[in-house]
């Protein structure tokens, strides 16, 4: 299982600092949606230039204009971009067209989708390389939140999937046991006082 570090920070300087500390322990460097909105596509180019050996994941969360938004992110250096699962099929197919042109990939983020397993199968048929079983930061803050529903959806989907929603060193083993291809960890790493140690601890918990 690969480990993806979601950098939900707001400046390129901070992203480059976080990436440098975590890179030895992670496979995928994610530029979070707030970071891309704050700094624009240039942050993708900067992180890819600093880490050409890593998969650079641009969390665009595209909802419309799939081909155009994916195209400009791939041209900036992204290896993977996200499109929302609640978007129309034509938006997802458009992003896949751009990915094919660039030799890159589209990940469909299932945040806000009620039947994640069923939508996962549909979007993989449209060409997504994997889906993200995702509970966002606001959902994580709700009473009673747990990763369990995401893990169950991943098991039921029977397609390649990642899990994002507060994954930590304590929960990453359950993510792996559910059959995930990628574990996504954001705040568990970037909020730690020792970013490198936090990333290393999650890596060590992956068998
Ligand atoms: O896409 C996101 C929020 O929309 C986050 O990057 C994702 O949820 C991973 O971060 P965390 O581990 O802190 O939940």
TrEMBL record:
Gene3D superfamilies: Aldolase class I. Its EC number is 4.1.2.43. GO terms for molecular function: 3-dehydro-L-gulonate-6-phosphate decarboxylase activity; hexulose-6-phosphate synthase activity; orotidine-5'-phosphate decarboxylase activity. The keyword Lyase applies. GO terms for biological process: 'de novo' pyrimidine nucleobase biosynthetic process; L-ascorbic acid catabolic process. Pathway: One-carbon metabolism; formaldehyde assimilation via RuMP pathway; D-fructose 6-phosphate from D-ribulose 5-phosphate and formaldehyde: step 1/2. It catalyses: D-ribulose 5-phosphate + formaldehyde = D-arabino-hex-3-ulose 6-phosphate. Coiled coil: none annotated. Keywords: Carbohydrate metabolism, Lyase. It holds the Pfam family OMPdecase. Transmembrane segments: none annotated. Residues 2-202 form the Orotidine 5'-phosphate decarboxylase domain. Belongs to the HPS/KGPDC family. HPS subfamily. This is 3-hexulose-6-phosphate synthase.
């Amino acid at each position: 299982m690969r480990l993806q570090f979601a950098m939900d920070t707001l400046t390129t300087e901070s992203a480059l600092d976080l990436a440098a500390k975590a890179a030895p322990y992670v496979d995928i460097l994610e530029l979070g949606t707030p970071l891309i909105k704050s700094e624009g596509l240039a942050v993708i180019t900067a992180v890819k230039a600093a880490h050409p050996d890593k998969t650079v994941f641009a969390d665009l969360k595209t909802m419309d204009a799939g081909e155009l938004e994916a195209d400009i992110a791939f041209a900036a250096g992204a290896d993977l971009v996200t499109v929302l699962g609640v978007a129309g099929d034509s938006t997802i197919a458009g992003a896949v067209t751009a990915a094919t042109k660039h030799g890159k990939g589209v990940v469909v983020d299932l945040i806000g989708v009620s039947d994640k397993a069923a939508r996962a199968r549909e979007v993989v048929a449209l060409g997504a390389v994997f889906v993200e079983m995702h509970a966002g930061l606001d959902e994580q803050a709700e009473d009673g939140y747990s990763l369990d529903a995401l893990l169950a959806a991943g098991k039921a989907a029977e397609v390649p999937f990642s899990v994002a929603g507060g994954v930590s060193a304590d929960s990453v083993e359950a993510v792996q046991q559910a059959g995930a291809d990628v574990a996504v960890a954001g705040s568990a790493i970037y909020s730690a006082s020792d970013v490198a140690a936090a990333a290393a601890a999650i890596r060590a918990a992956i068998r």
